[in-house]
Write a structure and sequence with these properties.
With 172 residues, the protein is mainly α. It contains five helices and two strands, in the order H-E-E-H-H-H-H. 75% of the residues lie in helices and 5% in strands. It has a two-stranded antiparallel sheet. Helix 1 packs antiparallel against helix 2, helix 2 crosses helix 4 and helix 2 runs antiparallel to helix 5. The longest helix is centred in the N-terminal third of the chain and has 50 residues. It starts with 9 loop residues before the first helix and ends in an 8-residue tail after the last helix.
Amino acid sequence: MCTEPVELTKKDKADLLLQVWEKTLDLQMHFNDICVGVRKTAISVLGVLLGAGALAFRFGGQVNIYGQDVSVAFVFIAVALLVWLSFWLMDRFWYHKLLRASVAYAEYLGNSDSARELGFDLDVSKKIREENRGSWNIAGATKIHIFYLGIAIALILAEFMLFTGKIAGSGG
């Protein structure tokens, strides 16, 4: 069925633009909440694995890995590192990408001819991104890398020390 296009009034256009823009901001908040949730979950899981590693270090004894006797804690730290890297991949290359796409679309709407013609200033997403970049003068993606990398380095150092015997488990 073919219908004639309906001519929208300026008020109708404004209402539609604001509805789409508001939904886009809702989507941004949703993805931001997911990103924060992923980080909170990552820290919680890391805490559990490190706690298990501490118990294994104290009471777990030794395992032989490639001819080297190491504390069972080594296994827990290795699992913690793999889980931590998995959370980083999911956070940075999955949900952060979705968040950035929603921000880009909100910026597109704010910079559109329609928004300017209707007299709207819809650049809150752009201003938030600029403020975020202003802290430490780096992009959000780089901050995510720093967050995960610091912990990953600490886990790798712990693995190295456990494997080389720089920290010997008590094997109680």
